[in-house]
Amino acid sequence: MNVAIGLDTSCYTTSVAAVDACGRVRAFQRLLLPVESGQRGLRQSEAVFAHVRQMPGLVEALARELGPAKVVATAASIAPREAADSYMPVFTVGEGHARALAAMWQVPFYGVSHQQGHITAGQLNQPPMDARFVALHLSGGTTDLLLSEQERLTPLGSSLDLHAGQLIDRIGVALGLPFPAGPALEALACAATQPARGALPASLANGDLDCHLSGAETQAMQWIRNQTLLPEVLALEVYDLLARTVARMLKAACTQTGVRQALVVGGVASSALLRSLIRQRLRKLGAEMDLRFGEPQYSADNAAGVAWLGMRRYLELSATGADTQPTGASQTE
User: Fold this and answer.
1) Could you give the percent of the chain with pLDDT greater than 90?
2) Mean pLDDT value of segment 193-216
């Protein structure tokens, strides 16, 4: 069995995965970065050190889970996005380990973007997407609306201030929930006994392709200080706001580009509650589209999409007879 090994070292998670030539995930290990109670994340230097400590154990666990296999390539997230100026120190840890493994095994190394890894992971175990589709990446560091054409990403819109995951984490931590706060805030929202009232107004711009979320944070923090709403009611209002915002952005993107498919990925998109609310809101808007979400375990930060990108790049080069550089040399996706 031939596999590609993928590594991803984000601001939230250390993860490794092995994917075979058919796109099946053969082994998968991930571990959240440790964050002290009451904190809203780690500084880059702290996150880098945490990845350095966690990566060896995860690779060892991946090897035990994978068993006998032939590694034909390694891949890693080397930047948040595909833009030339996109950089975060945390990704150097995954890149360094993947390069070292490639050199040891004498196989090629492929560098990819964290964002493209998310979009690819969202398509694992799913029917094939069209050549052109809208992708929305919702996480702690992104609220990016994109057009994917033959795997090339073109920005369409984004949040102009706070990102979706930041909104969830800041409000969750203010309510005393652990970071990252998504799972706990979702559980709290599901405990609400009445539907959301739409108390947080959606704020969009540029034909609904861009959004503002900082105003919602300001209002929610005021409610928390004044104990205006029960925690579960406030939590549900946050998810309702995100669903209304996302639905309008997706509808605008599909209308502008003329595409019929949309894929929503990222840690925030792993929420079953948010997925349900988005679908409800799109029905109310009369928006007809083929809306898809990745499997929950491959929605939050993970290396599965990175590994699959590495395998696909290896197969493409092998099929054309191109040199797959069995020296650990970098070939950026």
Assistant:
1) 91
2) 97
